[in-house]
Structures are given as structure tokens and as C-alpha cells.
Sequence to fold (199 residues):
Amino acid sequence: MTEIPIILLAAGQSSRMGGIDKLMQPINGIPLLARSARTASAVGPVIVALPPEPNPRYGALDDMDVQIVPVRDAAEGMNASLRAAIQKLPPDASAAMVLLADLPDLTQADLATILKARLTHPDYLIWRGTTEDGKPGHPVVFDRSLFGQLSQLQGDDGAQEIVRKHKDFVHLHPLPGRNALLDLDTPGDWKAWRKKHAP
Fold:
């Protein structure tokens, strides 16, 4: 399989966590950010969008083979991260995967499944993971023909504008359970997730 670069969006402010950085919360002794980066690194080269330094998230990625992209205007929202990361894609990249860093249930197999869907359904421009019952989520793979549009996005809507614009060229592929959608945005989310995954 040709390696597709993976953009890991990790520059958000954890605004719903009451002053706690959700991406630095430990899971089995590893910050969620590092766990997500390891999962992504198992299937392709990883570009991580981070807030400007100083920030403890940089330390979570020490000794990991990832490319870090500081996002100066991270406070704008998700699209600032997308713009910054798109500029760092290799010129020969035929597609790129976009992935949120706060989805703890996504696995290496899930990411590989969506990358494979791109090869088995080549007549599309966007390949997207869904929950088991079909709700769209992550990861999302974009064909290189959309890179220009991704690099022009503004605000905090992510790439939804582009997905809507090309809705007839989006392939949805189910992943197990709620892996594609379950994020941990609040202390309550974390409490419920940890309770469910307690040994």
C-alpha cells in the first residue's frame, strides 16, 4: 500500500474540559495525544498540528517519528490547523488522511480499513469512516485534487464545507461500534469512558 500521510489535528484548546488538557490525559500511562500519534504512525507518516510553543503537548511526542507543525493562529479553530498541515504534505502525496487526536477508540485496523477503501472504491474523492450504524465520523481521506480547497478553509467547521460540496463523491465505510465518533471532550466523557474500559 502506498503510504498516505496522516494529518493529526491536535491544536485545539480543550475548552470544555475546565482547564484540563484532554490530549494530555493518560490512558494506560500514555497521554491520549501520544496514543493517537502511535496509532496513526502504524499506518503512515504523521503530521501533527499543535498549538504554538511552549505547550506540554510537544513533550508528549518526544522521540516519536512525527512531523510537528506549530499553528500560530490555532485559536481560530480547526481550519487553521488544516491550512498549516496541508502546506507540509509531500508534493507527490496522492491523498491525505485527516484525523482528530481525541478519538480514543480508533485503532490501527480502523485507519487501515479507510485507506483500503480508497483503493477498492477509486471513483470517489473522499473516503470517510462511520459508526457501525452509519453516522459519519473519522478518519477522513481526501484526494489530492482537494488539497487546494483544504488550504483555503477558514473558521472552525473542519472540512465539512468541502465534504458537503462533494457529497456525491464521498464513500462512507462503517467501522466497529462508535470508534469513528466517540471523542472525549468533557470530564464527564472521560469518566464514562474510563468506567467502561476499567480492567
